[in-house]
Design a protein that fits this description.
Helix content is about 80%, strand content about 0%. The N and C termini lie far apart (about 70 Å). With about 240 residues, it is mainly α. The longest helix has about 30 residues.
Length: about 240
């Protein structure tokens, strides 16, 4: 008869691994929840109320909302939310005297950035989902996945840009103002976001080349990855942003 105790070493290893995974998950979840409360806080309720108020105003305005207007409204609102929430990530940690604790708990700069930026992404994603679904129900006539994803991706890029700027500026409002200025300048003087990334022709196309929507989205993804990598590299030099 085969001794059942021969299998105990393997079962013990799996049990130890499972316990380790549970501890790591509990540690990560606790730190993430702490970051959510500090990053979002009461201002999240205010921003959500603003989003609901804007939707109600549009619904009661009895005005015909076209695809272009809805796209630009969602883009503007989500960009503002990303910038407002991102500009205080590191400065708020300094003011709350929790930055050192976060540096000790986070095992790497990628984890540090995810703990701080991911709550913002999830919150704005929930707002975007609600508004896009609401306008789809109210107006219709547009692609729900594109209207949900394209403004959100553009706004998230502005958000990660704001995080990068907070490692250069000591004042969070200065970082937010510069990020907003860059977003406005890029959108108005260089890009046509509605046409370039959504693919909707808002006006006559005579004399204008058709935008390469897929290529532009790939370029946007590259820009986002570059900004994220730059933010991580900046966070590795603590002496540069702890002053």
């Amino acid at each position: 008869m085969q001794d059942s105790g021969a299998a105990s070493p393997d079962s013990g290893k799996w049990r130890a691994r499972w316990i380790r995974v549970k501890l790591l998950s509990a540690d990560w979840t606790a730190l993430f929840w702490f970051s959510c409360r500090l990053t979002l806080g009461i201002q999240a309720f205010g921003l959500a109320a603003i989003a609901v108020g804007i939707f109600i105003f549009c619904a009661l305005g009895q005005t015909s909302l076209g695809v272009g207007n809805i796209f630009l409204l969602l883009l503007s609102l989500e960009t503002m939310f990303f910038i407002l929430l991102s500009m205080g990530l590191l400065p708020r940690e300094k003011e709350g005297r929790t930055l050192e604790l976060l540096l000790v708990c986070a095992r790497g700069r990628h984890e540090l950035l995810l703990h701080k930026f991911l709550p913002i992404c999830l919150f704005v994603a929930a707002v975007a989902l609600g508004l896009t679904s609401g306008f789809r129900w109210l107006v219709g006539g547009f692609s729900w996945p594109r209207m949900l994803c394209v403004p959100y991706a553009l706004a998230a890029t502005a958000g990660i840009l704001t995080v990068v700027l907070t490692t250069y500026f000591r004042n969070q409002y200065g970082a937010g103002a510069v990020a907003l200025l860059i977003a406005i300048v890029v959108a108005t003087l260089w890009l046509d976001p509605l046409r370039t990334f959504y693919g909707f022709e808002a006006g006559p196309t005579i004399g204008r080349a058709r935008p390469h929507v897929t290529t532009n989205r790939v370029i946007l993804a590259i820009v986002f990855v570059f900004l994220y990598d730059h933010a991580v590299r900046r966070l590795k030099h603590v002496e540069l942003w702890m002053k």
